[in-house]
Structures are given as C-alpha cells and as structure tokens.
Amino acid sequence: MTQNYSAPVSAKFKKRTTNAILSVIFFFIVYVALILSAIGITIFAGYGGLMIIAAKPMFLTIMIGAGLLCMGGLVLVFLFKFMFVKHTVDRSHLIEITREEEPKLFAFIADIVSVVKTDFPKKIYLSPEVNASVFYDSTFWSMFLPIKKNLQIGVGLINSVSEIELKAILAHEFGHFSQRSMKVGSYVYNVNQIIHNMLYDNDSYNSIAQSWGSVNGYFAFFTIIAVKIVEGIQWILRQVYSVVNISYHALSRQMEFHADAVAAGVTGSKPLITSLLRLDLADHSFNTVLNYYEKNIPDSISTENIYSQQSFVMNFIAAKSKLEVENNLPQLTSDFFNRYNKSKLVIENKWGTHPSIEDRVKELEKLNLKTTEENTSLAIGLFKDSKQLQNKFTNKLFSTVTYSNDVIFHENDKFFEEYEKDFLSNSFNDLFNSYYDDKNPGNVDFDSILPDVSIKNAEELFSNSAVDLVYNSISLEKDINTLKQIVDGNYKIKSFSYDGHKVPAKNAKELVKELETELKEIKDQIAKNDIEIYLYFVNLANHQNKREEFKSLYDELQKMDKEFDINIDFFVKMLNASEFMHHVNTFEVIERKMKLLKIEEDQFKIQIEKMLENKSYNSAITIETKQLFAKYLSEDWVYFNKNEYLNECLEILSKAMNNYQMILSKSFFQKKKDLLDFKIQLIN
Fold first, then answer.
1. 576 CB contacts (<8 Å, ≥6 apart)?
2. Residues with Cβ within 8 Å of residue 232, at least 6 apart in sequence
3. What is the percentage of the chain residues whose pLDDT exceeds 90?
4. Which of 452, 514, 453, 449 is nearest to 480 (CA)?
5. What's the pLDDT tens digit per position in 611-634?
6. 162-194 as b/e, with b when 16 or more CB fall inside 10 Å?
7. Cα dihedral sign for 255, 256, 259, 261?
C-alpha cells in the first residue's frame, strides 16, 4: 500500500480560495438584501391588500388585495425556488458494478482512497467512453449535508492506460474531495448553480406565473408587475454572476492543479503525465472506430469488440508518428504533444474551468515526485474477464441502432485492413514528414527553373527543422492576428504573456511589428526551401522524361487553389446569411433576413451547377450527392412560412451547403495528394 500523502496548498490556490470565499460572501449579502426587499414588498403588498379590503369589502377590492398578495408571493417564490431543484446525473449509459463482481478493482480503489484520505465511493459505475469522474446528485442542501460520491470509469479509458496510470487518474478525481481546502470549490459551485437557476432555469416558474395570471385581469396585472420586479432582480444577479463565475473558474483551474498534486503524491509525477499526454490519442482512436461503424450502419456492419480496435488505431497512429510503444501503450512526450503548436502567446482564459494539458504537465514536472511503483500492467487486467466486459459495453454502445439486414460483425483483421487503407488514402506519404499537412506547394515558374544543380536530398528538404519553420510561420501568423485584436480593443485585457514574459496590452502594437519582421524572415527561409524542393523533383522528372506530366499536375493544383478561394467564399456568404436562424428574432427580422438569404442563395445555386459540370470534382461527387443537389436545385425552397421555420426544407439547404463544402475540400486534397504521390513515384 502507498503511504499517505498530503499535497501542499500553493500560494496561488490560497489566493483563489480567498477570492472565491469573498465572492460567496458577496453573493449572500446581495441575496439577503434581495430577500429582505422581497419580504418587505410582500408584507407591504399584503398589508395594503388587507387594508383595501377592510376599507371597503367588495369584489374589486378583494381582487386588488388578492392580486397584491399574488405579486409578493411570486417574487418570494422566485427567490426560493432553487432550494427545491435537484440536479440528477443521467445514468442511462452507465452500468453499476459490485465488489463481488470485481473484487480486484474494488481493492485497487480502496487502496487509493485510504492514501488520499477520502471516503470510498457510494457506488461505482462503468461507462463506454474515455473518461473518469466523481459525481453525485445535488440539491441546495448538498452545501450543508454530507453527500457520498459515486465513481464513474470509462472502459475506453481503462483500455488505454496502465494500472499505475489509472491509479494516478483516480487519485486526481478523489483529490478534489480529500482536503478541507478543496471544499470551498463545492460552495462556489453551488452558488453558481443557484444564480444560474434564477437566471436561466425558469420554465416551471414561468408556468406558475402564467397560471396565476390567467385567473382574471386583476391577477394578470399584478403578475406583470411581479415579473418586472423579477427582471430587476435578474439584472442585479447577472452582475453578481459575472463576479462569482470568474472567481469560480479561477478557483476551478487551481483545484485541478491541486488534485494533480494529490495524484502525484500517490503515484509520482510521471504516471499522471504519461496518461494525460495519451488521453487525446485514446479518445481520438475510440471515436475513430465508433465513426467507422456509424458510417457502416446502412450496410449492417458492426463489431463485437470496439476496444481491441481502439488499441489498434492508437498503436497504428503511434507507429506512423514514430512514437515509442511500451506494453502496448504509446508513450507520448510533451515535445510531440506540442509539435505543431509553436505559439508563444498566452492569454489567460478567465472563463475556462480546466487548465490546458500543457500547463498541467509543466506543473507536474515542477513537482518532480518520484514514481512510487513500477506497475505497468494494463489497467484492463484489473477485471475478472476483460474481453467479456469489452463485448458487453460494445453491445451497449450499439444497442439502440436498428439495422436493415442481418448484422455482419467485422473481425479485427478486416477492420485493420480497411482502416489502414482509409488512413493512407487520406494522408500524405511519410517522406513529407507533415510538411504539407497545413501548407500547399507554392507557385512555381517552370520556365525559369535552373538546370541540374547541386541540391539537398529529400530527407533534408523535409527534415524536422524544415517542418518546424512551417509551423512556426503558422503560429506566428495566429499570434499576430490575436495581437492585432488586442490593439483594436477587441480583447479587453490589461496584459498578456509572450515567450514567458509579461507584456502590457498597450505594448501589443510594438510587438506586432517585431513579429512581422520575424515572420518575413521565416517565410523567406520556407520559400528558399520550396525552391530547392522544386529543383529536386524537377530534376528527377527531367531525368525520367516526365517533366510535362509533373508540370501538368502542378498547374492543375494551382488552378484549383485559386478556384477554391473563390468557391468557398460562396459557402461562407451562405453561412453568414443563414446565421440568424440560430437566434431568436422577431417575425419581421426573420422575413427581412430571408430575403437577403435568397439573394445569396441564387448565386450559390449557380456555383453548384458549375461544380456538377466541372470534371475536376467528379471523383468527389457520389450518386447520393448528385441526387441531393438535383432535389435542392429543382425548387425555390421556402424556409419560413406562417410564422414558423420549415425544418424539412432547412434540412435540404443544410445538406446542400455541407456537401458543397465537403466536395471542395475533398477535391482539393485529392489534387494535392496526386501531385505528392507523383513525387514519391519519381523518387521510387
């Protein structure tokens, strides 16, 4: 058993905790003031109502008195309604397990909770996905009463980590509740929920107000006054909400760091680092397999075990990325994790509840706690019958699917074959080392290219340093655009961090100039490398009498590149013109916006007709897509009529837009791949 460990509380965590406590106190002061005001309104309204009735008992005075009481009551109901709301976690996708069913896992968890010094979970559930969490059904009274938590562990997670990594992940989850200092977060969370309830969860309250207001005209009048008072209370609460919310999010980020420190104290820093770095890959692999079988539902193709195929995808990508694999688990590094993100600009996200993986790893590396054990056995081995468990959850994942024919279950070999084929058809050759993943071959003047000269070999042209230049350029452009937003006042911040140094927002303009100079130098280096790439492959093409074929592929790509920018603009215009439908608008605004949409749609339809006639897009246009476009082009569809949206017509529009964008992207990718595959042929 691991020794007990108590994670030290950082100065930043203490500061955020203090701020959070102050925000909770601020809320309660405001809330008590609102309650006293509401009670005052109710007493005044009640007293006034009784006085009016006592002065001259008659139907009119009785209705006015009752209406005043109704008004005060509605305000009080609004302020106290959150106390009776219960937040219940959906368990439909979960399966509860018991100690008798999985004794080894329960003993494993018991060891963790004893070290972390927290309570054993009330219940333990398994779910299909790549995830782990501690949860409970909460009410307002959860702030004051002890609540036993439940543990949820995803089979997709267990399938992607070792035992010691799973111990680190679960220690992190239990770490949120292990120490008194962490409980402040629970109070702030509940205050957040209270305010959110009063601002946004008002369906039942509105029903009560409507039912009271529908009694008669007198009640309706006083109900309107009550609603106006409630709207005033909500305005006040919105101001409080912004204060509490920022405080809550800042504390939440520190709570994550603190829970990481708890976990590192249980297992050492490394197990949590390696698992954090792998989780995105594990989740991507799981969803890749899931999406594969979702696409094959029309052909009634499924699998009996999605998790063995998740492991295959994970390790296939690891092999393609030249990652080490230990005990069937890819070992990702921080350098690999950030290989394409070269940004040096950091702007604190005040609204984020979780720090980035990169920041969490950095903090864990600072702790540098020694690994307590070397148990690298796969976590799935903690179960009595792992294969039976995986099959059970695979079946649960697809239990709601209706197949048109008898189901054909793909064996692993069949899935591996099709996945690899699909992966290779949608990626570029390994020789290019991701050089062209986010970059296109540049323009080239074939007539001005020099004859054979001494140039680099292919490995040098697509070396890691050459690829780094490309991604440094991309990140610099993004940083410059963000800094320009700060200069223009679109980002309301006082300062930001660049390359580890704090920079006042007022100095952003000066920094932009420096970075633009740096970007030009990098782009010049990329352009020089591109010229050497052209020379290298043109020389190969000349020696093999394939210069014209090579030139033709370049010309076709450059032509489609120019067309892409023009064609995608029609899609963007349609996207912008239809954006209003995602918001609540008056009927007049909707009708006016629909007229503007129709103007853009006329041009959009012309572009679809041109696309169907252009042979360059033939390979990307399926029979189903042709039928969809034919249906869309056949009519002048009406999307709003008699004060309501026509969803069936909107679905036709949405599918046409999505397919148009997909065909453009797919066709351009294929042209690019044709050129790069031809380059590989020249080398081979």
1. none
2. none
3. 55
4. 514
5. 999 999 999 999 999 999 999 999
6. bbbbbbbbbbbbbbbbbbeebebbbbbbbbbbb
7. negative
